[in-house]
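Reading a protein record of the kind used here takes little practice once its layout is understood. The reader may check this reading against the record printed directly beneath this paragraph.
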Amino acid sequence: MRAVITGTGMYIPEMRVDNDAMSKIMDTSDEWIRVRTGIEQRHYAAPNEATSDLATPAARKAIADAGLEPSDIDYLVVATMTPDYFFPGSAPFIQRKLGLEQIPCLDIRQQCAGFVYALQIADALIRSSQCKRVVPRPTRRWFPGATRPGRWQPASIQDRYLMRSSTRTP
């Protein structure tokens, strides 16, 4: 049995910051950013939005995209370096917001590679037949003033994936 991605979902914070706003706090310009990156604007989490607030709607969309209900989920894996709190991390908050208090959940603290590690853990849970449906969730949250007052830090789109078992052979 192998694992396959059966649903995806995302959430984008409402606050938009364009390149002109960036040029007011650093030595850059809209043209310089656009030519080198193609980026015209980015989305930021509001200071009162926690990682779990951003990830929960993305998880709901991934579950719905897979044609499932939250009650169909067996395990939640969260990969982030920006948890709601240092302890506990974001997984139990997302678990509660999704109404999944009865399933196991865990946080792994990784940056970019967290996505791959979350998929690997989900795949191992499915291949071992311990679970049938796992939501691996890579995410990060940044907000205005995250590092220093007056400095902006980007908020990533919160992506969610739903993996399930498949009886198809590779």
Remarks:
- Residues 11 and 57 are 6 Å apart (CA to CA).
- The longest strand covers residues 2-11.
- The chain has one domain: 2-163.
